[in-house]
Amino acid sequence: MQRTWAATTAMAIVLGAAGAAAAQSAAKPDAIGEIVVTAQKRSENIQKVPISIQAFTAKDIRALGIKSSSDLGQMSPNVDIALPAGAGNQPIIAIRGIGLNDYDTNNAGPNGVYVDEVYLSSPASQTFQTFDLQRVEVLKGPQGTLYGRNSSGGAINFISNKPTDYLTADVHAEYSSFNTFNFEGGVGGPIAPGLDGRFAFVKNNSEGYTTNALTGNKENGADNAAFRAMLQYKPSDKLTLLFNVHGGYVDNRPAEYRHIGDLSPVDGSQCSVAATYAGGCVDAFGYGTPSKFYGGSYNRQQHLKVNSLGSYLRADYSADSLTYTSITAVEHVDKIHPEDSDASPNQLLEIDFGVRSNTVTQEFQVHQTKDRYNWVLGAYYLKEDLRQNQPLYVALGSGGGYVAYDSSHQITDAYAIYGQGDYAITDKLKLTLGGRGTYEHKSFDYFGSFKTQDSEATGGFDPIQVVNDSSHHLDSSAFSWRAALNYSFTRDILTYVSASTGYKSGGFNGSFLGQDPTLIPAQLKPINPETVTAYEVGIKSSFFDRRLTLNVAGFYNDYKNMQVFLLVDEGGIGVNILTNAKAAHTEGFDIQALARPIDNLTLNAQIGLLNTRLDGAVNGQYVSNQLPLAPRTTAALGFDYKIPFGDNAVDLQFNASYKSHQYFDTTNDPYTTQAAYWLENVRVAYQFNDKHWEVAAFAHNLGDQHYYVDAFDLSFVGLIQGVRGTPRTVGVEANYHF
User: Fold this and answer.
1) Separation CA 102–CA 578 (nearest Å)
2) Measured between alpha carbons, how far is residue 156 from residues 107, 123, 364, 523, 721 in Å?
């Protein structure tokens, strides 16, 4: 019922907008503005790009309240971004059902995250503050023939504001619920002849929205900052050099989870799903479910600390019709996350997630654009050195507790040659062909040990026992390709059909293994590479003098050797398994509509319809299960209406997002699911006639919806761990642009 209602509502907005546009044809309202993207390594009108792509401009980012990379999951249909360790930590990105539900930092997912065309290899670096951005582009489907790194599910591109040869400045100040303060700014302009610069920064502070009954303090707050500095030098008309240095830190209490007891307080048996979520069950230590959704008792007081620093040098040289590009980048991330995993006042389950990653990438590209054809040829190299140190503390103080030490060192060397070209067979028909060759070598050193607490429960420990000390290697290679045809019926109607393949290399289980030395070698066996064959057909169209755009894409993805991450209970111990499913598939539609029926009114409706299924068994089970992070229906609806007041204006903005029922793991565990929900946001802005100043009031999650962005079944210690979404937030902001 909700799925039908969502789709019907969205299409009603689209059809209503179309009808209004027709009725107002005599008034000739302004056409919808053109959005220029660089998804295909050149500047193009988004309506002329024959792939499924969604773009957020700087205005959109501000109006929608997008503060971090993880916020995009609510605004992009058929895109889901989970936060397995809460805000400030790495995301799990699924696009059209394609993703890897692994919270470990040594396995990047199949969807690429890029900032200014630089790939962020470490998942720990992929959730970051969005500030001083020109736009964000969300690309759906394999992107390997145009991008340096494998992107078999899709890619998210963040494009920052660049230095200009004239003075420009942007300032944003915001205050909202929970004593939350956000301040960001950027300034750029000429420094010397041929030399321009830009500096931008952001600072966030918040007390938090969760009450810690144990201390009386607030949790789930923020204390982080980031900066970006760029210099652009043009020694000649042919050569442009762009140097970037950026960094940031996080230094606050980590996000606390919702503790949901899972055992009967009478006999210790597992409660039913209904009883578990009714709140009357307890964990293995007898601690129950807090009565307040945003409440709990948390004993750990250490801070989440993340420090990142990176830089890149880009050189573009033009010679005749050819452009040569070199991008050299380095990224460093150092993170320690002291997780209160049991979300309780006891030491039932706690983990210290430590990771340090150093990455160097080098990319070379050659471009050529002519009247009838264009092409890109590139070569790419990545070297990542990543170390994990993850001590696990279980049932300390119970007389049977233990500490498991889990550390690993992974080195990745990846090489690729790729290319793609377009050729206009006729003025209306264009052929696209692309290919990619990939080779990757990984080495993985693992060391596991543990010590048990003595039975007297005095706090003493028995001697450390080593369970595994081993080294492993893995080589992967593949050829992937893309072929497409697009046909322009008119200048405003483009149709296309494409087939492409995506590839993700194999990898190692970088998570917590068992304590039986005889089983660990099997758990360390590397997983096989996965491949995706993607088919897509779409139409991009504009009507009524470009006052209505309607884009529809249908897709089918054939998944082979899908990489799967599972948390299973083995004899009362939680063990993580990384394995392959022989086959899976995803299919569905992306529908985007944007209308301007009258001057100053813009309506939008975006719908994602998705069907996913596991076609091959995982550990002999779960055939026909729905894939994780793949709700069947997602939607984003909104309007923007500007009311002139003399030379000034009031801008009324409303948007709502919808996700239908979804699972958080491949097992379709009924204890870790999220029911369908809506989130609504509203913003009222007053814009001054000089176009420089704007003040606004806003409310996010207007209905104060209680929902989870991820959940884990920790029933082996008697609880469900829920990662809560943000409650209703209201605030005010001021913006200045010069």
Assistant:
1) 8
2) 18, 13, 20, 32, 29
* pLDDT 10s digits, 140-165: 999 889 988 888 889 999 999 999 99
Cα–Cα distance for residue pair 585/559, rounded to 1 Å: 5
Helix (H) or strand (E) segment spanning residue 59: helix 58-64
Residue corresponding to tokens 């504001």: 161
List Cα–Cα distances, 350 to 88, 120, 342, 672, in angstroms.
18, 28, 7, 20
Nearest to 611 by CA among 585, 634, 635, 576: 585
Do β-strands 402-424 and 392-394 pair in parallel, antiparallel, or remain unpaired? antiparallel
pLDDT in tens, 636-646: 999 999 999 88
Listed residue (144, 184, 177, 336) closest to 250, CA to CA: 336
- Cα distance between residue 111 and residue 72, in whole Å: 14
Residue 562 confidence (pLDDT) above 80 = yes
Distance of CA 666 to the CA centre of its chain: 19
Return d(Cα 239, Cα 318) in angstroms, integer: 7
Residue 23: CB atoms within 10 A of its CB come to 12
Of 315, 311, 309, the C-alpha closest to 327 is 315
Q: How many CA atoms lie within 13 A of 672 on its CB side?
A: 27
Residue found by looking up tokens 């055939």 in the block: 623
Q: What is the pLDDT of residues 583-622, one digit of tens each?
A: 999 999 999 999 999 989 999 999 999 999 999 888 889 9
The pTM is what? 0.91
3-state secondary structure of 394: strand
Residue 427 CA to its chain's centroid (Å): 38
Class of residue 541 by CB neighbours under 10 A (exposed 0-12, middle 13-18, buried 19+): middle
Instruction: Read off the pLDDT of residues 255-284 as tens digits, 9 standing for 90 and up.
Output: 999 999 999 999 999 999 999 999 999 999
Q: List the beta bridge partners of residue 371.
A: none
Coil, strand or helix at 181? strand
Tokens 């966030």 sit at which residue? 204
The domain spanning residue 526 has which CATH number? Answer: 2.40.170.20
Tokens of 523: 């758990």
Q: Is 20 strand, coil or helix?
A: helix
How many domains are contained in the chain? 1
Residue 281 domain boundaries: 2-737
